[in-house]
Design a protein that fits this description.
Blueprint lengths: L12 E2 L6 E2 L8 E5 L8 E5 L4 E4 L1 H4 L5 E5 L10 E5 L1 E4 L12 E4 L14 E2 L13 E6 L15 E8 L2 H7 L8 E6 L15 E6 L4 E12 L9 E5 L4 H8 L5
Parallel strand pairs: 10-15
Antiparallel strand pairs: 1-15, 2-12, 3-4, 3-6, 4-5, 5-9, 6-7, 8-9, 11-12, 12-13, 13-16, 14-15, 15-16
Length: 256
């Protein structure tokens, strides 16, 4: 008999790529490394959404006065890379310790210059608000912990395939205080144990749109159950269609 894990509390919720493949330079040019400062190992991930703004999870920026960001790198500690320290951090006003409204925006102190390794990701359109994406294959990437037992961050950017699942499959694990209509849930694609883990929080959940001929961000990596990254349990993401108005109002960007 297999028993579901008990509902996770805030302390039980973490945010890592399990079973991933190494990414090539420029494969995910919107990926951002977030650290507390220049000497930190890793705090979170994020995504470039314009030359002045980075999108990440609310818990990555909550209570902080600044973040150190690294752009265009597939190495966690590159010898040379574009980096900035940002002090303009905007956490969603309704963010709480249940990971509800787990969204934050970082305004950069200077504009990015785009290149083959630094590019913005296109955000999902509001026209997709009714799309629950259940059954859709999606991609995650990050530098987070790669095992439950050994607390080592990946030194290289890893990516993996996951499949969006119905939210009710997450409810038995995380509970109704955590899993809301504004949550997306995903599990390893085709029955694999591919997943996210601590340090991957804030990174984008992306799908490829053949119509747009582009990668589209549909979610923000938000939570997994502590010490369950390799168990095959689902992971939780912010459903971006629920926060497009907030993103547009905060950044002044025109979103479709």
């Amino acid at each position: 008999m297999v028993l579901a894990a008990p509902p996770a509390s805030q302390a039980d919720i973490q945010g890592r790529i399990i079973g991933g493949q190494r990414a090539a330079a420029g494969q995910f040019p919107w990926q951002v490394i977030l650290k507390r400062d220049e000497w930190d190992d890793l705090l979170c991930g994020g995504s470039i959404i314009s030359n002045s703004w980075v999108l990440t999870a609310g818990h990555c920026a909550y209570g902080r006065s600044s973040l150190y960001l690294i752009f265009g790198s597939v190495e966690l500690n590159p010898e040379e890379a574009i980096n900035m320290t940002a002090t303009q951090l905007y956490v969603h006003p309704n963010y709480n310790d249940k990971m509800n409204n787990d969204v934050a925006l970082v305004q950069l102190p200077q504009q990015l210059i785009f290149s083959s390794t630094i590019q913005p990701i296109q955000l999902v359109s509001s026209q997709q608000a009714s799309n629950n994406y259940v059954g859709t294959q999606a991609t995650i990437a990050g530098f987070g912990l790669i095992d439950d037992e050994y607390l080592d961050f990946s030194q290289e950017l890893l990516y993996a395939q996951v499949q969006v699942i119905a939210n009710d499959k997450c409810l038995t694990i995380f509970g109704s205080n955590v899993v809301l209509a504004s949550t997306l849930c995903a599990e390893g694609y085709a029955g694999s144990t591919m997943s996210t883990c601590s340090g991957d929080s804030g990174g984008p959940l992306i799908v490829y749109s053949s119509n747009a001929n582009a990668w589209i961000q549909i979610g923000i990596n938000s939570f997994v159950a502590e010490d369950q990254c390799t168990s095959g349990y689902p992971s939780g993401y912010v459903r971006l269609t629920s926060f497009l108005d907030y993103i547009a109002e905060t950044t002044g960007l025109t979103l479709s």
